Known about the structure:
This protein is α+β, with helices and mostly antiparallel strands and 319 residues long. The protein is 32% helix and 26% strand. It contains 10 helices and 13 strands. Residues 13, 17, 30-33, 50, 79, 213 line the site of adenosine-5'-diphosphate (ADP).
Amino acid sequence: xxxxxxxxxxxxxxxxTKSSGSNPDIICGIGDDCAVIRSGENEYQLIxxxxxxxxxxxxxxxxxxxxxxxxxxxxxxSDIIAMGGKPEYAFLSMxxxxxxxxxxxxxxxxxxxxxxxxxxxLLLGGDTTHGTEYVFNLTLLGRVAPSLCRLRxxxxxxxxxAVTGTLGGSTAGLKLLLKDKEGYLPDHLEPRSRTRxxxxxxxxxxxxxxxxxxxxxxxxxxxxxxxxxGAEIIMxxxxxxxxxxxxxxxxxxxxxxxxxxxGEDFELVFTLPEKSLGELRxxxxxxxxxxxxTPKEKGIxxxxxxxxxxxxxxxxxxx
Length: 319
Ligand code: ADP
Ligand code: MG
């Protein structure tokens, strides 16, 4: 049976991880942005891992080696930030081609270290081997105070749904590259995670939090599935940048589709009770309200031009 016949990436993960086991120190195993493990009296250890594969996550036609290193670090940092945490220590495993030039790796590592420096991350190890395509996998450790740890499962009916920054820029850039069109590319080639300070400020007021790796539709669905809720997203309220709107015009496409089903924006999606809105705004204001969490029976919908439409699947490597 092929992976797409059972539904795709997430159905596969569910199938192969059924007997992964647990113990009382595991606050959250598989199913969130990071694994969360109790570590001493008043601290949780966070662990995440993310991979970039040549011709799937990046093409050497478009990415400089430094941009690959940066994007790998930013995508992992983003998962720690989405728990309310502080990123700390990284391990890098890579599969290189036999004829790889050392200058390629100098460039890759310069990008990786630049991003690591920005987020206070230290590289502590890894593994090196060879294969037919480049594969880079980063494992990142971090920590969070239990009171600030924000899980996908913490949303409550009545919560507002908010997103930081703007969405859809990474996909807009990718589509321009795929169609060989000129336009704005930094959101795709050099995306940045939110900072630890942003994540912590939000964590003080939010219930659930997740980062945008597969598109807003997919991330809200993850929150709802883990929290046992429904949700309503108002499509016209999704924040788009002027460059994303301009790219969509060039591509004759809908920029909201990029935001909902594209991904790799590494912004944060969070839910919070209405009463906390003012307090959060006084310390962090780069966010937009895009909908609300509803009881599970209401389902998960996008309101487009006043009409309910279903949420489609986000990016899936196997569908
Ligand atoms: P994110 O987009 O936040 O990085 P993913 O969608 O990649 O998260 O993964 C969702 C969850 O599934 C995470 O808890 C991750 O650790 C887990 N996961 C992904 N692939 C595997 C795998 N091959 N084996 C076990 N767990 C996995
Ligand atoms: Mg994530």
